[in-house]
Amino acid sequence: MPEIFSTINYEYKKPLNFDEAILEFDIFKNLGIETCKKPEIKIVKNVRISTNSVAFNYFHIFKETCIGNNYEQYQKGFKFFLKFIFPKFNFSKKRFLLITDEWTSNYYHWHMFALVRLLALKEKNLIENSLLFLPTKYQKYKFALASLEKLGVKKDQIVFLRRKSNIKVKELPLVSNYQQHPIAFNQLRKALTKDIKETNFDFGDKVYISREGQVLRFVKNENEVVQLLEKYGFKKILADKFFYDEQISICSKIKYLVSPHGAGLTNLLFMAQDSFVLEMAAKPYYFKPVTDYYKLASMLNINYLYQECEMGEGSQVMDFHHASLVVDLQKLEKNIQIMLGYGK
């Protein structure tokens, strides 16, 4: 097996329906070669971990455990330290692993960040003889516990920490300088899809993942969208209605996936190479749409298509990330035909 985290230069593939003359594809024009760096792992000792996954020692916060500008906020004054001044649990003779942050309870961030950090620790043989810290809320996230088991973490290695608490540990390997990495993503796919359990669900190889019932990024004209997709053999599913192993089993059989931007698209991680995914996202105004799923698809060698959509009535005009979508059916049909035409 190649070294998972060797530093490499990776060149992104353009979307399958890319047209440089069309404004909506501008976000992909300057995404060329990217240096995917090897993450750094440093061992710190006699550290505390707060229930929000921030590591600190006395009045020093380890910046690599903070998200965005939270580090600056926590360093101001003493509110953070007063909240966690006394350790509630003492494991001062144990080595702990920290893979979570304040975003990783999200399905996408769990897979792309928490599990990839775990891969980096596994590569250095740091999982064995270690305990894994998790905030207690992760007990209700079945995908988290199931995926940890697939990556070799045993249930008796996990220590859950309740809210507004912290834990003192002897040793903590910190993963920093992390970036998206194609070899890591492919190794993650291999580990999670190994020994797939058969289910009673068979949706075929053409699937539309709906955000029906969600308050963000749902498709307002979904009835018309589904009617069009059914004409081409697609079946609608709500991914979060299935158990984790069922999602893996269903998505491992998908060759053609259509979905609005959202956590459901994370399931392209379970699709085979040379399959196809069409992402639909709201038209941006001042903020550019994120390209996370495009990058993930490219690194997994999955053919990617993109469709920009108008925001639904009542959406916040400047915030594409929270807006509902109105899908142009004519454009959608054209993209479906490109997708299926390339797949023959």
Structural notes for this entry:
The radius of gyration is 21 Å and the shape is globular. Helices cover 26% and strands 24% of the residues. It has helices at 70-75, 79-83, 107-123, 142-150, 182-192, 222-231, 244-252, 292-299, 329-343; strands at residues 8-11, 33-36, 40-50, 55-57, 60-61, 89-97, 131-135, 158-161, 166-176, 206-209, 235-237, 256-260, 276-282, 303-311, 325-326. Helix 6 packs parallel to helix 9. The longest helix has 17 residues, at 107-123. Strands 5-4-3-9-6-7-8 form a 7-stranded mixed β-sheet. The model has no long low-confidence stretch (mean pLDDT 88). It starts with 7 loop residues before the first strand and ends with a helix. With 344 residues, the chain is of the alpha/beta class. It has 2 domains: 8-35 and 195-343, Rossmann fold; 40-178, no CATH class.
